[in-house]
Amino acid sequence: MTIMNSLSPCSLSAPESGIVEVVNYARGREGVIPLWVGEGDLATPDFISRAAAEALVAGETFYTWQRGIPPLREALARYYQRRFQKALSPDNFYVTGSGMQAIKLAIEAVTSPGDEMVLLTPAWPNFAAAAEISGARPVSVPLRFEHGKWQLDMNRLEAAVGEKTRALFINTPSNPTGWTATPDDLRAILTLARKHGLWIIADEIYALYYYAGARAPSFLDIMDDDDRILFVNSFSKNWSMTGWRVGWIVAPAAMGQVLENLIQYSTSGVAQFMQRGAVAALDQGDAFVDENIAKAARSRDLLCDALIATNRVETLKPDGALYAFLKIDGVTDSRQAAIDIVDRTGVGLAPGTAFGEGGSLFMRACFLRDPAQVAEAAERLRRHILSR
């Protein structure tokens, strides 16, 4: 038996990221404008890094609270009161080692091997992969794409619910499409979940990146206290902390020991000095977040206006999130197109093939960058598209 044959089927089934494949292909090339991954171009601001550094120097390097240090959970409660107008207890918050771990633990908490989790696609590939690694089967429900806009088809969603369905995974605003659920969409999804006794795992990481108001509609606006909803989130996008790997779950307080146990047997908690930086982000970072959102809005307009004007790209400006999901005339293999585009233009895009059903003809561009750099990327892409 070979080494590979002796590994578990579960580990062998973990797919290679189609996004990372393209990144690795051109990583480190001079002059590449990297719109391929979901992060901005700013380092973590000093007031956050300084808080973490001071805690590190002060010796906050021991084992810590597995649910998260009390000051961070209290800061999260203040953040939700301020941004979501929702009064939550610190007991509703659980600090995780990244938004990705929050997703993984939420799926593990509500599904068992053989269960099904329904998700809307195109979607960030880690959602489905996390379910598969946990033993659950992801069931895709494609959004409708019409006239450049993505829309939810509730009939499709309800038809996907079966006897083995245990959870609905809802990411809004959406990575990669920018689709943002309306209040009516959310009510319909919640009604469906209540009807079938399903959990909702709500990924609202992009809630503040909403271009028609202060934030996107949230399940928090309509839910009752006894609804089965887990919220997963991260410090990555709002506060330019992608490399920190700190996230959180919002959950019923009754689940506290269950989630603490899942954290214990995976990471045993997030480093305390990093959590001090996260406290500073929440309590001092509103102005920085608002600047990031304003920059994203300017860059979104520059990128989308330039590409739509070619009459060779089918898309509309997304309602939320950080991505333009582009359908370029003549592209039938977005993986190969991503490689060709980075070779010929020096612009890194993510292939739509990475995002599951409904995404194969599209390319994703993250626009949370300096507007001047995004304008340069748009011009390179415009010239390439018109030369085809």
UniProtKB/TrEMBL annotation:
Signal peptide (from-to): none
The UniProt keywords, alphabetically, are: Aminotransferase, Pyridoxal phosphate, Transferase
Q: Which domain of life is it from?
A: Bacteria
- Cofactor field: pyridoxal 5'-phosphate
Q: Which family does it belong to?
A: Belongs to the class-I pyridoxal-phosphate-dependent aminotransferase family.
Matching InterPro entries = Aminotransferase_I/II_large (IPR004839), AspAT/PAT-like (IPR050596), NHTrfase_class1_PyrdxlP-BS (IPR004838), PyrdxlP-dep_Trfase (IPR015424), PyrdxlP-dep_Trfase_major (IPR015421), PyrdxlP-dep_Trfase_small (IPR015422)
State what protein this is by name. Aminotransferase
What Pfam families does the record tag this protein with? Aminotran_1_2 (PF00155)
- For this protein, the Enzyme Commission number is 2.6.1.-
Question: What organism is this sequence from?
Answer: Sinorhizobium psoraleae
**SUPFAM superfamilies reported for this sequence:** PLP-dependent transferases (SSF53383)
PANTHER family for this protein: AMINOTRANSFERASE (PTHR46383:SF2), ASPARTATE AMINOTRANSFERASE (PTHR46383)
